[in-house]
Amino acid sequence: MSQKMKQETLRQRNTIAEIAAKAGVSIPTVSRVLNNRPDVAQATREKVERIIKESGFVRSRAASVLRNGSSGIVDLVLPDIDNIYCLEIIRGVEEVLERTGLRMALTTTHHETQGERRWLAKVADKATDGAILLLTEGHSSRLDTLQHLKIPFVVIDHLGELGPDVPSVGATNWAGGRAATEHLLSLGHRRIAVIGGPVKFQCSVDRIAGYRSALEQAGVPFDPSLVRIGSFKQQAGYEQTQALLSLPHPPTAIFAGSDLQAVGAYSALRARGVAVPEEVSVIGFDDIMIAPMISPALTTVRQPLTEMGRIATTMLLRLIDGEPLDSIRVELPTTLVVRESCTSPTLTL
């Protein structure tokens, strides 16, 4: 860094300290306002903005991006962008980064650990300010590498066990699975099937655990034949629903582990001439944008995907600035969204 740039950075730091003193807030708070960060109370933001304007302070995005050798880039690493789930998270990340001088670099790993390793090789020279990660299973070694390189990161919707020092954002999958099952039980269903995602994914394990807890609480015997495991893709919903319909005693309701699985379940039921919800009720998980658009509109458990992207990005920005997090693990609540795909059982297949 040139002597002139050093002097400019020092002058701005002194000015920021003066603004913080006048506003009665911390220097990091002034920094967050200057960078248009969302994690500042509106009243505080307005007060700091007023003092900034009165002081004649000139914001220098170039100076902030160049400080400490910053790349000005935040990496978002996803398994793919072929599904709406990932697109919702991208939206949340973009919304927060648009308020800063940072750019997003998007990498897709195609569900391959080798893809994650290739990305790591590219950023090993710290060619990133930080990363937001949706990784495949067995990713502890990659996280260890990032920690060793001192690259800040936040994991979204972790697919396995994380260490106590790994920042992450997820949703209340167990509670969501229980809420979905309780809704079907309240309608009078007793033969309730569940289509889960891969058991190596913690979110899938938690949703099925919530399902089992609701059955136990209602005194409904657990039937292993009603538990089907597949991917979270539409094809898995189709195939597993076909298998369920072939049972000697098919279910009267299906809890799908994702909305895409639920779409596949719809296709399988219609292929068999089974009406939704009159003959079989279907409930999904995620509440992606297609859920209210399909017919009948899908009852589902809303997972706040866009908000997960926003929160993860906000957490990462704090880590980049060297600020402590209020919590290492953030779990956002899931909520049941009742639409038209569930009703009381009236017919027997």
What do these coordinates show?
- Helices cover 45% and strands 15% of the residues.
- The model is unreliable at 1-14 and 60-68 (pLDDT under 50).
- The termini are far apart.
- The chain folds into 3 domains: 3-66, Orthogonal Bundle (434 Repressor (Amino-terminal Domain)); 71-170 and 305-332, 3-Layer(aba) Sandwich (Rossmann fold); 173-303, Rossmann fold.
- The strands form 2 sheets. Strands 2-1-3-4-5-11 form a 6-stranded parallel sheet, sandwiched between helices. The protein has a 6-stranded mixed sheet with strand order 7-6-8-9-10-12, sandwiched between helices.
- By secondary structure, the chain is of the alpha/beta class.
- It is built from 12 helices and 12 strands.
- The protein has helices at 3-23, 27-34, 42-55, 61-66, 84-97, 113-123, 140-149, 173-186, 202-218, 234-245, 259-271, 305-320, and strands at 73-78, 103-108, 130-133, 153-156, 168-171, 192-196, 227-229, 253-256, 281-286, 299-302, 329-332, 335-337.
- The protein is elongated and about 75 Å long.
For this structure, what is the CATH class of the largest domain? Alpha Beta
Q: Which class do the helix and strand fractions yield?
A: alpha/beta
Query: How does the major sheet shape up?
Result: 6 strands, parallel
* N-to-C SSE string, H for helix and E for strand: HHHHEHEHEHEEHEHEHEHEEHEE
CATH topology of the largest domain: Rossmann fold
Radius of gyration: 24 Å
The gross shape turns out to be elongated
CATH 2nd-level architecture of the largest domain: 3-Layer(aba) Sandwich
Percent strand: 15-25%
Number of helices: 12
Helix proportion: 40-55%
Name given to the CATH homologous superfamily of the largest domain: Response regulator
Strand neighbour order, sheet with most strands: 2-1-3-4-5-11
Low-pLDDT stretches: 1-14, 60-68
Instruction: Give the count of structural domains.
Output: 3
Q: Could you tell me how far the N terminus lies from the C terminus, measured between alpha carbons in angstroms?
A: 74 Å
Mean pLDDT: 86
